[in-house]
Amino acid sequence: MPFSGFTEKDFEVFELPDFGTRMPALKAWITPKLKDLGEDLAPRLSEEYGTTLYPHVAQHLRRSVNAPVATWVAFAKEKRAYKPYVHLRAAITGEEIRLLVFVEDYADEKETFAKNLLGLAGPLSSYLNKRPEIRAYTICNSVGEPLKGEALDRKSLRAFGDRMRKVKGQHAVFGIAWNRTHPVVASGPQLEEALLAAARELRPLYLLGGNKAEAAALLG
Predict the structure, then answer these.
(1) Predicted TM-score of the model (pTM)
(2) Within-domain flag for 3
C-alpha cells in the first residue's frame, strides 16, 4: 500500500507505559506504515545515492522489558542486515519524525567513518554551519541537547571523531527532524519528499562510511 503518513494516534503509542502494551501497539499501528514507507522510499533513495539501498523495518527482537522509545525503517546497502554499516533511518519517536545517518558502536564501518570525519572535519564544519537543521544527536551541549549544524565547528567534530576511535561504546547519529505537529508528517507524499530532501543534505555524512573522495567533493 502507498505510505499514508503518521497520525496523532501513531505518536500516542509511545505514551503507553510499558513493554506489554506499547510493543503490540507498535506492531499493529506503526510497523505496517514503516513497511509501506520503506517500499516507497528505497528505490528513490537508491537513485539519489547511486547505489541500491534495501529497507529494513526494526523488529526489536532483543527487547523484552524496556519499551522502545523509537522505531524505524533503515536503508542499507546490504539486503540481510543494516547495523554493521553506516545506514539511514527514517524513525518515529513520541515527539517527531527523524531521518538519520546512523553508525552503531559495533559497526564494521565505524573506524572508517571516524577516520574520514577526522580528515574532513574542516570542510564538513563549513557544510554543516550552513545547514542548522542538521543535528548531531551524539554531540551535545552542556544540558544534553544535540548540537545543531551551525554549532558544529572543526574542533568539536575532530574531538568526536577521536572519541569514536577510542571509545568502544561510542556510536554516531546525525539527522534532520520534523515535530509531530509539522504539516508534512500527516501526508504520505509530502513526508516522503521531505525525507528525500533530507537524505540529499545528509549524503556527505553517509559517505564518510566509505567514499571519502565523493564526500569531499560534495563538501566542496
Answers:
(1) 0.95
(2) no
Task: Measure CA 36 to chain center.
Answer: 18
Alpha carbons 75 and 78: distance in angstroms, whole number: 9
Domains: count for the chain: 1
**Residue 173 neighbours by CB distance under 10 Å:** 19
**Mean pLDDT per 10-residue section of the chain, whose length is 220 residues:** 93 93 93 97 97 95 79 97 97 98 97 97 97 97 94 96 97 98 97 98 97 90
**What is the C-alpha separation between 204 and 219, in angstroms, rounded?**
7
First to last CA, the chain: 40
- Which CATH number covers residue 35? 3.30.930.20
* 1 assigned to some structural domain: no
The boundaries of the domain holding residue 26 are 8-219
